[in-house]
Amino acid sequence: MLNSNSQFFWYAGELVCAASLTLPVDEPGLLYGATVFTTLRVYSQSLEAPLTNWAGHCQRLKRSLRSLDWQAPDWQRVRQGAEALVPYFPVLRITLFPDGREWITGRSLPPNLGDWQRQGIVAWLAESSRFQRSLPIHKTGNYLPTWLARQSAMQKGAQEAILVNQQGDWLETSTGNLWGWLDGEWWTPPLKVGILPGLMRSQLISWLMSQNRTIREEPWCLDLVMEFEAIAYCNSVVEIVPIHGILRRNSQLAYDPFHQGFQQLRGLF
């Protein structure tokens, strides 16, 4: 009988009970990272729950497939695979191959997520453009730069890495979008600087606008960042996580993880 401790996944229309996936040796997804994916958190064990945002995640995949001129999957089969895993996992990753095959895996929430949300985390500023993502507006299987950045951050005792561009502007973390509080408003880097249009970012912007809040989408130069009272990052799995310390070179920036401004963002949940 299946449970969350079982090793199983959905692949190409079938539920597979195994710990490994067999791929051809010439598989582009294996050789070049030629896949697109999205990771979603399932609320109330339902793909229809508003916060799950199933439609938004499917639209993200469809936009990437159209842009890359790849074959669309059987969307009914994708839905079937997700539904098969929903009873067992709160987090699903849906991966699509160029020929339309789907691969869906499940996992648990981060074990320390509650502590991160309450107390914040430490991030490391990856002050090198070599950590920038390729094709930043898409979630492709080639995530090596951000994976390396996060590995470097963890070696330094941090939980996340913050990526920068060649001009030194802060872009996003290795797994999410950035938010900063200044002058009674939330600021977030604009899409035009080359960041992922995160779905949680979009949901938060819509939420804040519905509450008549102003959102400032401006590039994050160091001078601006130094003025922020609070900083956080978001994604569809962790929701909102404050960043209370940022390691940069031989110094550390400190921010308030308990700032009252976080109440605005958390109102969505």
From TrEMBL:
One family name in Pfam for this protein: Aminotran_4
Gene3D superfamilies: 3.30.470.10, D-amino Acid Aminotransferase, subunit A, domain 2 (3.20.10.10)
GO molecular function, one term: transaminase activity
Superkingdom in the source lineage: Bacteria
Sorted UniProt keywords: Aminotransferase, Transferase
Similarity comment: Belongs to the class-IV pyridoxal-phosphate-dependent aminotransferase family.
Name of this chain's protein: Aminotransferase class IV
